[in-house]
Write a structure and sequence with these properties.
alpha/beta, 5-stranded parallel beta sheet, 4-stranded parallel beta sheet, 15 helices, 39% helix
């Protein structure tokens, strides 16, 4: 195992000496593309928001810059080679910010967020931006017309975010939609779905804001890239807060996700690390709200669907006809390009955890999605291969809960603490049980065993 430090720099003139520990591998992250223009999509994001008459705050810019450091470290430091247990990495970030004292106060909460989210050990240090960049964002001119936006809604192109968008627009809301544009397999569904939403709700003029952020494969020299990307939601949340800070008023960041996947209770005792994501867990969202309070950002992060299964979200969507038309364009698969080596297009595999939950949610309403494995019951699924592993894990969890339903109240605590909202515990146990039963209906006739 090697410890890594990512050191943010604001251009070649930023030569402040940053001490490193013995054995610590240092990587420079140059945040300036040219002159004073920020790179990695941040400068373009500022320009795009300016066209919407939105001027983010300096502290929100710091948050997005921090998220760039986190995303770079998470995607460019291999777990396989840089950790003792093939999972837990030790990562330190040195982030240039406008007001270091404010961020130092937030550092303990920030560390809890990152450690919980990715399973790594994070240390985040802060220093002042160079004088040339101290006040980076021009002061916003007084606007005679207040912004029309009343919230920020994350829009990933998945089925849950699509339902969240439809429900919000059907209610007459005016959210600013925010997306992170990465690989084409994800960006294309976002684009296709949103194009239809714009046409259907033309009177509301739905608006989407995107951030394009990628890092060179060899950003960290002689170290392979990492595919688990557990910190992606930190970037996603930071992007939404960055955009919403330009509203000039308190706002909500809406994160639409079904309750089963938000809890993400381990399906069996071996489901650790890469198999336990926490991107919208109750504890994670609560720590984000704590962080925003410390930073003085008047925003709240919320998931309105925390107590709904994915099937319930589908059934209760306020425009079922539009949803049905858009389902084939949405993308829920954890790895839609995994079939390329077989010559398959980017599509839903049909057997990963998100695909199984999606298929289960659409059993009763009809599923127009194309899957690489179209019929799970056609032949026994090999549990020694990826096609059968998730299915057997689900079957184990379903059988266990059917035999002992009272376990639900205990199992929901396994992914992380739930002390922030004790009044929700009964509903959380309920959504966990109902979510597994949905998948149980899908897998009723499916056989999974070693072949």
């Amino acid at each position: 195992m090697r410890e890594h430090v990512i050191i943010g720099r604001f251009g070649p003139g930023d030569r402040v000496v940053i001490p490193t520990a013995i054995g610590e591998v240092a990587t420079k992250l140059n945040l300036v593309a040219s002159d004073r223009a920020l790179g990695y999509g941040i400068g373009q994001a500022l320009s795009d928001l300016r066209k919407l008459r939105l001027v983010p705050t300096e502290v929100a810019l710091d948050l997005l810059v921090l998220a760039a450091h986190v995303h770079a470290a998470d995607t460019r430091i291999s777990r396989a080679t840089e950790s003792q247990d093939s999972w837990t990495r030790e990562i330190r970030l040195v982030v240039p910010v406008n007001d270091p004292a404010k961020w130092v106060r937030a550092a303990p909460t920030l560390r809890r967020i990152l450690d919980f989210l990715t399973g790594d050990r994070w240390t985040v240090d802060f220093r002042s931006r160079p004088p040339k960049f101290k006040q980076y964002i021009p002061q916003a001119p007084a606007e005679l017309i207040p912004t029309v936006f009343d919230s920020v809604n994350l829009f990933s192109g998945g089925l849950d975010s699509l339902i969240g968008a439809i429900d919000t627009l059907e209610a007459g809301g005016h959210p600013l939609f925010a997306s992170h544009a990465g690989e084409g397999a994800v960006s294309k569904p976002q684009e296709n779905c949103f194009d239809v939403l714009q046409k259907h709700y033309a009177k509301l003029s739905p608006t989407r804001f995107r951030l394009w952020m990628n890092f060179p494969k060899q950003l960290v020299r002689n170290v392979g890239a990492e595919d688990s990307t557990r910190a992606r939601s930190f970037l996603f949340f930071a992007l939404g807060i960055f955009a919403g800070s330009g509203f000039g008023k308190p706002f909500a960041l809406r994160v639409p996700e079904n309750g089963l996947i938000s809890l993400n209770v381990p399906l069996d005792t071996l489901r650790l690390g890469a198999l336990s994501t926490r991107t919208t867990h109750q504890f994670y969202i609560a720590r984000w709200n704590q962080l925003l309070s410390i930073l003085g950002i008047p925003a709240v992060v919320d998931n309105l669907y925390w107590n709904k299964t994915k099937g319930e979200m589908v059934a209760e969507c306020t425009n079922a006809k539009l949803l049905l038309n858009l389902i084939p364009s949405s993308m829920s698969c954890a790895s839609p390009t995994k079939g390329r080596w077989k010559g398959l297009p980017a599509e839903h595999c049909g057997f990963c955890l998100p695909c199984l939950i999606r298929r289960a949610a659409l059993v009763s309403s009809g599923d127009p999605t194309t899957y690489s494995v179209p019929n799970l019951a056609a032949s026994p699924m090999d549990t020694r291969r990826a096609e059968g592993q998730q299915i057997r894990s689900f079957q184990y969890a379903i059988e266990r809960l059917r035999a002992r339903p009272q376990l639900a109240k205990m199992l929901i605590h396994k992914p992380g603490p739930l002390y922030d909202n004790p009044e929700r515990l009964g509903d959380l146990a309920g959504v966990y049980q109902r979510g597994l039963e949905e998948v149980g209906v899908l897998l009723k006739s499916v056989k999974a065993r070693p072949s």
